[in-house]
Amino acid sequence: MLKIPENIFEDMAVQAAEEAPIEACGILAGSGGTVEKFYRMTNVDASSDHFMMQPKEQFAAVKDIRNNNMQMLAIAHSHPETPARPSEEDIRLALTPGAVYVILSLMDQSKPDIRGFLIDDGEIDEVEVKIIRGQHE
Ligand SMILES: [Zn+2]
Question: 137 lies in a domain?
C-alpha cells in the first residue's frame, strides 16, 4: 500500500491542472510506504498521451532523496482526460520493474482520481493508494 498525505495529493492535483492538457509527472519519495515528498518534474516531451521526465531534474531528485535517507516510492503522472488506468504507452514505457506507477486522473476535475500500479513486462497489478487526511499543519 502507498500512503499519500492529503497536502501532497493536493499539490499533485494542482500540478496536473496547471500542466493540462499536457501530462504532468513527478517522483514520490518517503519511507515505509508513506510519501513524504513530491518532486515535480517537467514532461520534456510536452505530450498529452505520455511523459518523459527531464533527466537533470530527475537526477537532482534522486540525489536529494538519497541525501535525506528516503526511498523513491513511485513515479507519478497525470491523465488529463482519461481514467486512472495505465495506457498502452504507459505499459510500453514502464521500464522500471518494481516501481509503483501512480496515475492521477483529471477526468472528473472536481474529484481527481488517483491509483497505483506495478507494471512488469505487460503485467499490471494494482497497488492500493490511500490518501491520509488531516495532515495539514
Ligand atoms: Zn499514462
Answer: no
The average pLDDT across 77-93 equals 95
Q: What is the mean pLDDT of the chain?
A: 94
Q: How many domains does the chain have?
A: 1
**C-alpha of residue 137 to centroid of ligand 1, in Å:** 32
Q: What is the pTM of this model?
A: 0.94
Separation CA 116–CA 129 (nearest Å): 6
In a domain, 65, yes or no: yes
Q: Which three cell numbers stand for residue 91?
A: 505499459
Distance CA 73, CA 29 (A): 5
Question: 59 lies in which domain range?
Answer: 2-132
Q: 83 CA distance to ligand 1 centroid (A)?
A: 9
CATH of the domain at 93: 3.40.140.10
Give the distance (Å) from ligand 1 centre to CA of residue 101.
Answer: 9
